[in-house]
Amino acid sequence: MKKNAAASSALSTEIAGIKFQNPVMTASGTFGYGMEFGGYTDLNRLGAVVVKGLSLKPRAGNPGPRIVETPGGMLNAIGLQNVGVEVFLKEKLPLLKGLKCRVIANIFGETIEDYAELAKRLDNAEGLCAVEINISCPNVKKGGIVFGTDPIEAARVVHAVRRSTGLPVITKLSPNVTDIKVLVRAVEDAGTDAVSLINTLTGMAVDVERRRPVLAMSTGGLSGPAIRPVAVRMCWEAAKAARTPIIGMGGIVTASDALEFIIAGASAVQVGTASFIDPDAAVKVAAGIADYVKRHKTTVRELIGSLKTG
Ligand SMILES: Cc1cc2nc3c(=O)[nH]c(=O)nc-3n(C[C@H](O)[C@H](O)[C@H](O)COP(=O)(O)O)c2cc1C
């Protein structure tokens, strides 16, 4: 009994005052609303499930083709298909009740008002521990400019969400920017409690026989192992600039991949594309981190930002 408690505390991490039994979460959009994976993996062994991005109204997403495999990864242009916040609250969230892992809702909107309204609706939802804001969306009111690439727009979204909910706010940053530190500071000044990164890198694949883009939307988001070195570098830069905890992701498949992010400064990690190959991937990453911690006689908290340079 005592031994188990010690093992779990060696793995635990804290973000915005919330304790997670281990630092491994599922990445939004790659794990449905959690229960879809219930028959393939033990959700109780995750730190948290981050659900598919939610909008005010249900969305059908983009027309196909909307996914293509690329070397070491994939391009997707799903178009944020989701059931909408009301169906999530009524039908999806209650199914996750009683699990040992935490649940985080990921939200997105086309206007700042959308984000604020979503945060308000989720505010008192039983079983949610935090809201993650996806700011990699075009602001329709501003003619399509992407919230997450403009520090002023990003700060406005965070400020609006912050005012609309008592839940901890995690802001998910886009890698499609020149200097991630500018975005980190902007969202922190606007009141975010934590920062997660990276979302997908914009990419494109061409069908040379047809001389057409492979994806119906022409471009898509690149994810998977191919982006990991970029993601680790950006998390490291973000962690050095940040006052709040960092949640790292991008191409994590194994525990060693996840530890790269933690040692570079992340307090937790998310596993995304790897779950498409192995629905048990995130749980295996958590188990591998437990082995590492034991082998090195250390704790996750000690490992965070323990990178030696110079
Ligand atoms: C099919 C697919 C759907 C995604 N949907 C969302 C989403 O709804 N909201 C979001 O914030 N990120 C979304 N993402 C981005 C992932 O959460 C993650 O940031 C990214 O894929 C990098 O991690 P990975 O390389 O481990 O997949 C999606 C990614 C994929 C591959």
Main attributes of the structure:
binds flavin mononucleotide; alpha/beta; disordered N terminus; 310 residues; 18 strands; TIM Barrel
3D architecture notes:
The chain has 310 residues and is of the alpha/beta class. Helices cover 32% and strands 21% of the residues. The chain has a single domain (2-61, 80-205, 224-303), classed as Aldolase class I (TIM Barrel, Alpha-Beta Barrel), CATH 3.20.20.70. It has 10 helices and 18 strands. An 8-stranded parallel barrel has the order 3-4-7-8-11-12-17-18, surrounded by 6 helices. A 4-stranded antiparallel sheet has the order 5-6-16-13, with no helix packed on it. It has a two-stranded antiparallel ribbon with strand order 1-2. The model is unreliable at 1-7 (pLDDT under 50). Bound molecules: flavin mononucleotide. The site of flavin mononucleotide has 25 residues, from loops.
The number of helical runs is 10
Count up the domains: 1
The main sheet orders its strands as 3-4-7-8-11-12-17-18
Helix content: 25-40%
Written as H for each helix and E for each strand, in order along the chain, the element string is HEEEEEEHEHEEEHEHEEEEEHEHEHHH
In CATH terms, the superfamily is: Aldolase class I
Rg calc: 18 Å
CATH class: Alpha Beta
**Would you report the number of β strands?**
18
Q: What's the CATH topology label? A: TIM Barrel
Short description:
The chain is of the alpha/beta class and 310 residues long. The chain is 32% helix and 21% strand. It has one domain (2-61, 80-205, 224-303): Aldolase class I (TIM Barrel, Alpha-Beta Barrel).
